[in-house]
Amino acid sequence: MGSDNRYLSIHQVTIKCKDLNKKLSQVYWCSVILLPKTTIKDIEKVFKGFLWTGGILTKGKAKVAWKMVCKPQEEGGLGIRDLQTWNKALLTRQIWRLTKVKNSLWMDWVNIHHLHKHTFWEVKSKDLEGFSWSNMLALRDKLWKHIWKTPGDGNNINLWYDNWHSAGPLTKIIPVEEKDSHDLKNTMTLQQFCSNHGTGWPWGWDSRYPPLRAQNLPILQTNKKDTVWWRDREGNKKDFNPTQVWKDIRTINPTVSWYKVVWFKLNIHSHAFIFWLAIQDRLMTHERMLSWNTSNNLKCLFCKEVPDSIKHLFFDCKYSREVWKQVCKICFLHTSGTDMYQIVNSLQQRSHTTHIHTDIDRMAVAATIYFIWRERNLRYHNGSNIPHMKLANEIFNTLKARLCGTELKWSKHMEEVCGKWKIARPRRWHPTKADDHGR
Ligand SMILES: [Zn+2]
To answer: For 15, how many CA atoms within 13 A lie in the half-sphere containing its CB?
Structure first.
């Protein structure tokens, strides 16, 4: 269990993990080799330690599987990048260079040592080749569909293996026998092919291979270089960078319906984190503890009647129910529902709006869950005994401080909120045009 005061710094911890992700992109080895699984595990252990214990990770302290943590917020995670995919995305820089630059000392070296008259996309991996090279070859399947070329002079486009035709690489459309019967080599460039065939396909190809009809051979421009571009998973043209690559090669998971209820601009990060754990039933409640051991003396620290659980704490228990009732009253909430799941459900329906009342309701439910959980743990460790009215007032004051300390747009609704909450309108809140006029 333990006090959750350290969660006050959870935002910094997540930032720190994200920062480590960034730092790794500057580490030379992360961009040239796929890190061994054991190394990835060791680095992740440091990340996990930061997140769950604020130091070194000890057994049983992780509350949510790391795989889950590494999902984006809209998919139910904390938005930390998983290292294995990030490492692959960083390594892609080398492959990008390889496909983009034709004449360079490095390309000459690659041609002599690795390609031997093959192309990067079809050369076979050999046992004794360098670690870094075989790592690059291992990524080909994932990247092929994303690296596209627009013809200029056609000199840097491989006829068969590069994506330049809208139907995809010709090698996937035209069988090897056809290629061989015309004596067309694997390394043939689009320029070489076009100089032999002009702008029309060899006789009979478009009737035998219908996908070719989608696009004729291009008219090449001798004074224009071919361009290479990154195609995202939706087919849009994007600038190449490791973040874009990461977005396109990672596994996409279904969006969770509740993420906008937990994560939004005005949220208080430590509250959002506990709310995130509660919503996934990952707080160490009695119910969870009982699923692991047989001790049955556990009783809710508030009502002393039953072992606590997410459902009981938020807000079936008579103590927490009173706290929530009071918060609804003094914070002028517009939320319906008497337990966390009902409340989340009703907030979900409103989460597309940017209404200040929606923000306050979302902040209030997260704050109530956070403060009840904190009080529950303080009762266990320090014998705390804050009455429900006092706790509700503490929640109100925390939310009020948050509202006062944030730059907000002035609106009629804000005016109403300020009136009810007795907040003097802070100077740094954005004035509307009408306000400016009145001064
Ligand atoms: Zn209780």
So the answer is: 6
Do the Cβ atoms of 60 and 293 come closer than 8 Å? no
Separation of CA 352 and ligand 1 centre (Å): 34
For 301: left if phi > 0, alpha if psi spans -120 to 50, otherwise beta; the answer is alpha
Do residues 117 and 187 lie in contact, with contact meaning Cβ atoms separated by under 8 Å? yes
**Cα 321 to middle of ligand 1, angstroms:** 9
- Which of 50-54, 156-160, 320-324 has the weakest average pLDDT? 50-54
Point out the least confidently predicted range of 11-15, 190-194, 381-385. 11-15
Span from the CA of 320 to the centroid of ligand 1 (angstroms): 7
Cis omega before residue 315 (within 30°)? yes
Question: Could you tell me the distance, in angstroms and rounded to a whole number, from the CA of residue 273 to the centre of ligand 1?
Answer: 22
3-class SS string, 262-282: HCCCCCCHHHHHHHHHHHCCC
| CA–centroid distance, residue 343 to ligand 1 (Å) | 19
For 35-73, the pLDDT digits (tens) are 778 888 888 887 787 777 766 666 766 778 888 888 999
Cα 269 to middle of ligand 1, angstroms: 26
Q: Confidence band (pLDDT; 50, 70, 90) for 432? A: low
Cα 300 to averaged position of ligand 1 atoms, centre (Å): 5
| Residue ranges with CB less than 5 Å from ion ligand 1 | 300, 302-303, 317
CA–centroid distance, residue 318 to ligand 1 (Å)? 6
pLDDT tens digit sequence for 23-39:
666 666 667 777 778 88
CA 317 – ligand 1 centroid, Å: 4
Distance from C-alpha of 57 to C-alpha of 167, rounded to nearest angstrom: 50
Q: Is 186 helix (H, G, I), strand (E, B) or coil?
A: coil
Which pLDDT tens digit goes with each residue over 198-234? 778 888 888 999 999 988 889 999 999 999 999 999 9
> Do residues 410 and 432 touch, judged by C-beta distance below 8 A?
yes
Ligand 1 centre and the CA of 83: distance in Å? 41
Domain ranges in the chain are: 92-249, 257-406
